[in-house]
Batch of 4 targets.
Target 1
Amino acid sequence: MTKSELIEELAIKNRLINKKEAEMVINTIFDSIGGELVDGGRVEIRGFGSFTVRERDAREARNPKSGDVVKIPAKKTPFFKTGKELRVRVNEGSEGESL
């Protein structure tokens, strides 16, 4: 599902808001999650999962084409861990249930 499909789905399921308002809601949610991660925080959505930031150490690797040693700097990466309810739903393949 793409972001535009998610906006469409929200607008269809909730007749009280139009597509433009649905887009604003989705953008606000994504911006809030991203902002919290940028600040080093953690976002938990019960039953769905949690977003955190993991730090990766600097390391040396090899360029597979040339064999040269390449230095990879330390960096932060977003990480998502699924919640138990979502994991169970995916593994059981239940389609009709909602979170």
Note: The chain has two domains: 1-41, 42-94.
Target 2
Amino acid sequence: MKQNLNLEEIKNLINTGEPVLLYFSGENCSVCKVLKPKIDTEVSKQLPKFNLVEIKTDEQLELSREFSIFSIPTTIIYFDKKEFKRYGRNMSVQLFIDEIKRPYELMLS
């Protein structure tokens, strides 16, 4: 996952039209630390064209405000420059992958 991108870099990444996953986490969030490697591994393996970005909310408060993040971890998926879905807090990684796999494959075909 890419880290420490500023707002302009993230918007440029979204505006490419490629699939983007934004993962909002925090330093003292145990769920964030457990979930991040699972998402990173599975998305990289099953959906390799995704651009993965981690945003640490405690270090980049302005990005939390810009993307209306109220709890962590939060994952936002972008397809074709548009927000597709948000996932918050506890989630099944396999259900998450299954849910975004079809639009991912349609977009890239």
Note: The mean pLDDT is 95.
Target 3
Amino acid sequence: MYYLGIDLGSSSVKVALVEANTGKSIGVIQEPEEEMSMYAPEKGWAEQKPEDWWNFVCKGIKKIKKNHNIPKKEIVGIGIAYQMHGLVLLDENGEPLRKSIIWCDSRAVEIGNKAYDEIGHEKCDVHLLNSPANFTASKLRWVKDNEKGTYEKVFKFMLPGDFIAYKLSNTMNTTISGLSEGIFWDFKQDTISNSVLEHHGFSQNLIPELVETFGNQGTVSKQGAAESELLEGTPIFYRAGDQPNNALALNVFHPGEVAATGGTSGVVYAVTDNLSVKESSRVNNFAHVNYERGHLKRIGKLLCINGAGIQYRWLLNNLAVSSYEEMNKLASKVEVGSDGVCVIPFGNGAERMLLNQEIGTRIVNLNLNRHSKAHICRATLEGIAFSFVYGIEIMKSDGINAKVIRAGNDNLFRSEIFANTIATLIQQEIEIYNTTGAVGAARACAIARDGYDIFSSYMKNDHVMTFMPFKDKMQYQEAYKNWKKELELIIN
């Protein structure tokens, strides 16, 4: 028997199959093989068609079943992970009313800022654990203000993962974790936020029924079965946004456990029971997957670094190199600190952890007579690593005391220079695991059926290596000090 995991990203959909008894990954496929389309009719906008997501989910399910010759009756549970903060609007017939306004769309920034001021900073911090910012609630308000005809037809709004679950089951529901990422959850009252609804003039009827993050969230309907080629009646056991799900995939559930991701953007996601909002302008706070209403207050503190892997990818595309492996080898020939060369890697838009400043990428202290592309490669890896350390320092000031840091084996953490730099500067081991978001979503079905112990047992064979901090950290500290000095000159 098998569990199926769906990971809906903004560039592709990944579908995974794992053995239900052992958690062993059978395979992961991606649809489409190239990137999904994104629509940007105005500067700063980003939209996708929910129908496209569903088509790629169905293609992915069919392909992975065929590739591994798995009959549909042997798939006994479905888990869903999805791109966070998106807005999907459905009419009373369950049809999308417009394209989804996705996570990286910035049209509602000022709406969120105004809500923060008018609801009140202290009230937002204490009750929402965030400023409303450019999240789902603000995007819904934008539609209300700018597309009145569309808004009047809205029966329910959804997050992207809710939409996939609806297409599978013909049931409209959502989770506390999902509502919290949209800034609809009042953590102090432990209920849907009346302050947000009243401020924007939203009816609570627009919110789908609440279901548990783990548990039977609905079963595959006749139509869902026909389109996906899954068995009618197959249960959906789990649903969460991509960053909480990545933490779950790395077995991060308890205070002091931290998940890190070094993909196109970088993420540090720490679990806490501390409701501190000292850094709410730079760190977001959401209900983690194991948050329990009235019982277990598990908060995921999320710090995002936009300029991470995209910086190294840009270098690959624009240097005379053929692969990341070649770049890593070049970088390894240069001493710690890159002979003074510093890369400030923030060229992927406004950085929330820098208070939404858009400072771009800078290469400083470059000597054209002495430095080569090897120095640029090393300085870039170090610069991205330093940005992670800078973010971890912010999280420490917000009450996070990291006891263990875990990362996947499919991103920047595969680089020894990158991982060793972070581990040494924070004096903390970094554990690397061979898992993905889609595999994590599939395995999460086991929590709904059998509890956390069996899920934790799945991780035993996933450990790849542990990066230990170097005892001699003076060179690293000096390099980080120089980098931070350059950053502060720019931002001040």
Note: The chain has a mean pLDDT of 95.
Target 4
Amino acid sequence: MLNDADRKLQADVQAHGWHFVHVQGDATGPSYSFTVGLYKTHGHPELMVMGLEPEVSHPIMGLAVEQIKQGHVYRDGVRDDTLLDGVDCLLRAIPSELHRKYLGYNVWFYQDRPDGFPALQILWPDSQGRYPGQEGFEMEVMQPSL
């Protein structure tokens, strides 16, 4: 049985091709945001970004979706400077074993797909240009690499 949030998600994907989800951080981990519906609508991996508040992450996701509609493809292991005013973001595949933990709404949305869905994490650099997982990265708590 669908609740209001489920119906809103489905309506957004139907009308706009995607839905935005934000999860507020707590003592167990940072805030993060992700898309739902990109894979269904555009055949593109879902996107996720950690450590940003929704008023920052939503415009980033919206820009990414507009670029995807124009044919841009975000890929694992590729740096892209189109999302944060010329800052090179690094995109990394989110392992499928972490989908349920971080992207549960996508797990529900794609439950009829036996092959699941692909997803990419958008990683942004620290003040020294290092990314999560690199030695000396300054914001590991705020932005862990999955």
Note: The chain is about 30% helix and 25% strand.
